[in-house]
Amino acid sequence: MNFSQRFVIVLTAILWLSPNSLCAQQTPTSKLKMRTVIKEAFAQTHDGWSADEVVLKDDLNQMFIGACLQKLPDAEPGDLNWRLLNMRKAGLLNVPTTRSDRKSVASWTPIAEIAARSMIDQHKVSIDRILTSPKLRQCFNAAALEIDPNADLYSVRKSALGLRKQRRLKPELIARIADWGRAVSTHSVKSIRADGRVLPEAPGIYIFRDTTGYLYIGQSENLRSRLKEHLDASSNFSLSAYLADRQHDDITIEIHAFAVDSRAKETMIRRAYESELIASRKPRFNIQP
């Protein structure tokens, strides 16, 4: 046996024996124990609601996590929620549910989509990951409240989960393959009017939006100067009229700014990015490509 072969054997043994190793964490015994604990905690705390509702409802989720941590004190709450959803999808819960909330959350769909897509763009994770992770969930809630300070956060979360089930939150292809040093930020129209320097002098995409949904998507080689033109007198008549009729209290602009020396400096590249966002997000005042 040569040195390389001995090294591989020793390294493998270390990985298997280490209490913090991936191999140790993924043994069939540990998986079975975690599934058992999650199922028992769900049965104990769900109060007749489905696994989705246990994740979505703050009070039920806190009780579920607390019950899990009593037996798995080192578990991550986000991982417990994630596994609960996946056990439900795989049919591994087998716990009867007796309650359902049939109240429509359709009115919250525009806010849910904007908040969800903004989070997906910034963090590059699925909406399931966002809703199951306590930290990302707080960010999602904050994004929703930024759009509407009076938003019903449970309804927004439920609507976002519904959008995912309808496959309406799939990341745009070009956003997945072309980052180009992208930085995503959001600014209110009021803050931009007060000081346009909050916007970068960089190439990128801008997205007008409010509580009714996406309004207009455009692209520019210089975001700061282009948005100043829009807010002074937009070349898009419908957007211009809309801006003139509103107090701008709830209108925000989402910015996707790219590195100045990236391929986003090419008009053709920005237009491809812009067109895909228009096709998937369907802003009211754009001509569909």
Question: What does the model show?
Answer:
With 289 residues, this protein is α+β, with helices and mostly antiparallel strands. Among the domains are: 106-165, no CATH class; 179-281, GIY-YIG endonuclease. The chain has 15 helices and four strands. It has helices spanning 3-17, 22-25, 28-45, 51-56, 58-71, 77-89, 109-123, 127-132, 134-147, 153-165, 173-177, 189-194, 223-233, 237-245, 267-281; strands at 183-188, 204-210, 213-220, 252-257. It is elongated, with a radius of gyration of 23 Å.
Low-confidence stretches: 7-24
Number of distinct beta strands = 4
The top level CATH class name of the domain at 179-281 = Alpha Beta
Lateral arrangement of strands in the main beta sheet: 1-4-2-3
Q: Can you tell me the CATH superfamily of the domain at 179-281?
A: GIY-YIG endonuclease
Number of helices: 15
What's the rounded overall pLDDT mean?
Answer: 87
Shape: elongated
Helix content: 55-70%
Q: Sheet bearing the most strands, described?
A: 4 strands, antiparallel
